[in-house]
Amino acid sequence: MAHGPTTASEEYIEVAPSRPGQEKGSFTRIIQELVFTVDHKKLGLMYIGSGLFFFVIAGLMATLIRIQLAIPNNHFLEPDVFNRFFTMHGTAMVFIVGMPIIFGFANYLVPIMIGARDMAYPRMNAFGFWMFFFSGFLLYASYFAGPGLYNAGSAPDVGWFAYSPLTSRAFSRGHSSDYWTLALFSGGIGSIATAINLIVTTVSLRCKGMTLGRMPLFVWTFLVVAFLVIIAMPPLAACQIMLLLDRYLGAAFFDTQNGGSAILWQHFFWIFGHPEVYILILPGFAIMNEIVPVFSRKPIFGYPIMVAANLMIAFISLGVWAHHMFTVGMSSVGNAFFAITTMLVAVPTGIKIFNWLGTMHGGKIRMELPMLFCIMFLFQFLIAGLTGIMLAVAPFDWQLSDSYFVVAHFHYVLIGGLLFTIFAGIYYWYPKAFGRMLDNKLGHLHFWLFTIGFHVTFFPQHISGFLGMPRRYYTYDAGRGWDLWNMISTIGVIFQAAGIFFFVLNLIWSYWKGRKAGDDPWDAWTLEWATTSPPPDYNFEHLPVVHSRRPLWDLKHPDDPDWKYE
Amino acid sequence: MEFINQPVPEGEEAPWRLPSTRKAGMICLILTESALFSIFVVAFVFYMGKSLNPPYPSQIMEPPWLASASLIGSSFTIMIAEWFLKRNRTFGFNIWWIITVLMGAYFLGFTAYEWHDLIY
Lengths: 566, 120
Known about the structure:
The complex is a heterodimer. Chain A has helices at residues 6-15, 27-36, 40-69, 79-113, 122-145, 176-204, 217-248, 262-296, 303-317, 332-360, 369-392, 394-400, 404-434, 440-466, 483-513, 551-556. Chain A is mostly helical. The longest helix of chain A is centred in the N-terminal third of the chain and has 35 residues, at 79-113. Chain B has two domains: 18-53; 62-115. Chain B contains four helices and no strands. Chain B is flat. The A-B interface holds A 120-121, 192, 195-196, 199-200, 203-206, 208-209, 230-235, 237-239, 242, 253, 258-259, 261, 264, 268, 271, 519, 530, 542, 544-547, 551-552, 554-555, 558, 561, 563-564 and B 1-4, 6-9, 12, 16, 18-21, 24-25, 28-29, 31-33, 35-40, 43, 46-47, 50-52.
C-alpha cells in the first residue's frame, strides 16, 4: 500500500535508474507490475479482464453448440466434441467468467466505497486472483493434457454438475474429470480467500462515520455474497476431495456398485450449486442498487428493507438445493419442502424489484447506457423469476426437468440478469477506472444488438422445452416441432456475437479515444466518485468522513444534507 | 473533493472503533473450515453401518482416545503458552510451547500409523 503523496513516488520512479526492460511503460515493466501488484484496483481490473477473456472463449463454444443445433440431423460437430463443449461452456461461464467478474467488481469498488485504502489482506487478495487465474488455465489445459497416460478422453464431458456415476473411472477414462475437479478445487480456494478478505475489509476497515446503516447497498450485498461463498464453496471442495478419493484411493462415496450413493453427489453438489446461483445473481442486484438511484436522481427506495431482503435471500438460498433434484424420486415431504422454500425466495426478490421500481417512480430518469441495461434487467429478470417459480412446482418440474425450458430459465437468470448488470456496471464504472467515458454510439449498438440477440436466442428455448426437447442432446430428428425454434435460436447468436464485438471494440477504442470523464461524470453520491479517475494507489489523499448514506450529496448540498432525514 | 470542513450533525464525535481484522479474519476462516468439515461429517454419518462387506470399521479400528485427547488438549496448552508470552515470561512460554508441539507431533504420528496400519 502506498501512503505517500503522488509526486514523491513519481519523482522516485524517475530518479531511479531503469534497468533494461524496466523502463516506465515498457511491456515487460507492465507485466511485472501486474504480476507483483497487491493493489485492489489493479487486481479488480485483472479479475474482470481475465473473466472477459474466458467469456469470449466460452461464448465461442456456445456459438458452435448453437450451429450444431441449428438444423435437425446436423453433424457439424462430433458428438464427443459437443459433450465437451457444453461441459466446458457451463463450467467456464460459472467458475472462471461469472465468479471472477463479480469478484473484480467487489475488489475494485468495495474498498473505495467504504473509504479504505486497500483490502484488509492485500497479498491474500493477489493470491486469490492468481489461484483463479491458474484454475482457468488448468481447466482449459485438459484439452491438451486430458488424455494423460491412458490416451483416453480430452476435456471434461460430464456436464457442469458432473453427476455420478459419469465421473467414475469406468465412464470417465483418462484425466479429464481430474482436470475438472482440480480446477474447481483450486479456483474455490481462491474464491474463499477473496471472500474472507471482502468480509474482513467490510467489517473492519470502514472509514469514520460509515456505520452499517450507511454502507452503500453495493457493499452490503457483497458482504452477503462473501458469506455465501465461505459457506457454499467449502462443500464443493469437500465433494471434489471425495470424488478424487473415489477415483484413486478406492473409496466408494458415489460408486453405487460398491455401496455408495450417486444421489449423495447430487445433494452435495447442489448444496454448493444453488447458493452459487445467488452468489452470481446478488452482485447483479448490487450493481442495480447503485445505478438505479443515480439515474433516477432519487435515493434508493426502502434501504433497510433492501438489506433485509439480501439477508433473507441468502438464508433461504441455503435451503432450496434439492429443487434441482425433483426427478430423482424424493419423498413427497422432501418435494413439498423444497418447492415451498424455492417459492419463498421469490418474496424478498420481489421486494427488491418493487423497490427498484419505487426508486424509479417519480424520479427524473436519465436514459444513459448503464440505466438502459438496468431497465432491461428488470424485465428479463422478472421473466427468469417467473419461470423459476413455475419450475419450483414439483409436478411441473417433472415434465420439464432437463428440457430446454430449464436452459432458457437459467440463461434468463445469468445473462438477462447477471450479464446485463455486469454490462451496466462496466458502462457505469469504466470512466472511474480509466478516466474516459465509453463511447455512446458503440454502446447503443452493443445494447440493442445484444438485447435483441439475447431474446431471439433464448425465448424460443422456452417453447422447444415445452415441446419436449431435452437439454444436452447432440442432434434431433426433423418433424418433432423443434426445427423452427432451434433455427431462430441460432440466428439470435449472430446478433449477440455482433453486440459483443462492438462491446469489446468500445472497451479498447475508448481507452485511448474516449471522452475525458472527470472525477464524477454521473453526478453520483458514493465515495468512489470523490477521488480522481483513475483513483491514485492510495485511493484518497485524506480518508473521508461520512455522515449519511450519500456522502457526496452532503458535500454538494451542504445546506440540505441527507443526514437531516435519515 | 474535501471531506474536512463540511457541516457535521451533532453527536457524531464518538470515537470510531471497528473489530480487529485478525479476529474477523479468524472467525471467517473457522466458518469456512466448519462448512468444509460438515460435509465430511454428513457423508460419514450417512454411511455409518452401511458397509456392504467386511472388514467393518469396528473390526479394524479402535477409537484413538489418546491421540484425540492430545489434539484437543494442545488447544489448551497453546493458550497457556500464549498467556506466558503476553507477560514476557519466555521460559514458561517455551515449556508450554514445546509441550504443544509434542502433543501435535504425537497426533500426527499416530494418524500416520493408523493409515499405514489400515492400508497394509
